[in-house]
Each structure stands twice: as C-alpha cells, then as structure tokens.
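Batch manifest, entry 17 of 40.
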Amino acid sequence: MAGWLGVRALVTGATGFIGSHLVKRLTRLGAVVHAVSRRVRAEDAVTWHVADLCDADQVSDVVRAADPEVVFHLASEVTGAREVRLVRPTLESNLDSAVNLLTAVADAVPTGRLVLAGSVEEPRPEDGDTVACSPYAVAKWAVSGYARMFHQLWDVPVTTLRIGMVYGPGQQDLRKLIPYVTTALLRGESPALTSGTRLVDWIYVDDVVDAFLAAAGSERAPGQVFDIASGSQLSIRDTVELLAKIIGAHQQPRFGAVADRPLDRAQVADIGPAGELLGWRPRTSLETGLRRTAAWYSTTWAR
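Output type: structure tokens
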C-alpha cells in the first residue's frame, strides 16, 4: 500500500496494549478504522463494533459490516502461566477467535489482507523444538498452522508475525515484567522476581506497530511467518538492572524470590526475513525504549 488514507482497516484487540497503539497510528495516517470490543466504546474517528470473537456469527457480522481491506488480529489471552486451568480459556480466546476471523474473511472479503499476532514462544520443529512451553504458546502455534492452511487451500492473504516480548508506554497490565518492575521501583519497593537468568528478546511497541503496517502493505508477505523482535537477547536480570539504573532506584530487586517457570527457554528471533521481505527493522534501542517507558509510568502510575 502506498498510503493509508481512506483504507478500511479492522483491528481486533483494539483496547489492548499493542492494539491501542495500532489504532492511534492508523487514525493519524487517515485510515478508516473499525475496532472490535466486548463493550460499547465511543472514540472520535473510530467505529466500534461490540462482539465476542469466540462467537462465529458475531465475527461474521462484524467483518461484513466493516468490509475491511486489511484486518489486524491482535485479540488474545496473553499469559505465560502454566496452570492447567488456563488450557481451555487460552484455547478458546486464541484459537477459536482466530479461526472464526479467518473463516469470516475467507467468506466475506477473500482478497482482504489479514495480519495475525503470533508469538516467538511458538515451538519450531525445524529447530528440534517440538514441545510448547505454555498453553498460550501452543494455542498460537495452532493459529499459525490454521493461517498457513487458509492461505494454501483458499488463497487467503494472511501473514503471521511472531512477536517478541513487547514493552513500552501504555501497558496497563501490571502483572507483566516491565510494568511490574517499573511501578514497584518508582514506589520505592523491591520487586520479587525469578532467578532472572532467562534470555528474552525485547521489542518496543512502536516498532511492533511498524511491523504490522509493513506486513499489511507488502505484496511478499501473504503466506509468510515473520519474527518481529530486536534480534538480540538479554537476561531478565540484566534488563531489570538496566531499568533500575534508568529510574535511579536504590532498592535491590529480589531475584530468586519467585520460582522459575517450567519449560522456560530463551526466546530466539530471526529478524532477517522481515528485513528482506518487509523492509522492516527495529528502530528503538532497549535503553531508549525503557527510558520512554519509565517516564510514562512515572507520570501515570506512581502517585
């Protein structure tokens, strides 16, 4: 796409962390934005649709009403927890919603571009990684499989972005690592953490939005799966220590106060294909992104 002015775009998960940033960007670019929420919302320049994405009929109604040229699917139950009670709700919120959306697009707007949010935690059989580390990871893996099937069988122009650990201003869920640590340190508290040895590939939220727009606008993207992350790894301990330095915190995080999660493994992202086929590269360094993030929380959450 040469530009977004007048382009009809449908965004699921529009009230979430990445989704809200994407909606704002699309609005600024002049797109005609349709957004999905489970509750009635009112916002200038955005048409809101109330729907439960686990209901196939509701999803079909939304797609037909929006008649989108591009669909961004970010609605998801994002959790790294390992509890068995999460298997069913994670399956429904991630897999059912994606399959419903893929089906609705194939039926109503088969030429419409569809960009799905995947995860770098998905298993990679080509690397000998065949066991998912969490209910979330295996649900996202299944979504990627369905996306490839819809593209191969019915030529649906769908692209999957396997996204790394996203952070940045506006992340409301204080259970996530960066919001939790940042707000704790700003309040003079010592956050309780795991050993901190796990290696993570961080990616700033604005860079993720860039990737979604690039995928939607590339003729080479449909049928592909791309890693969207920084392409480098840093341990949780080193990340937290950098954040503490930026904030100027004097208290020490309590590493080892929380048990490491089973099957946790290093996140490995290969961003080469995204650069080659999408022309996308991350632009925000971790230190710059953390400074912006800490500044946002210092004015918004720390009272």
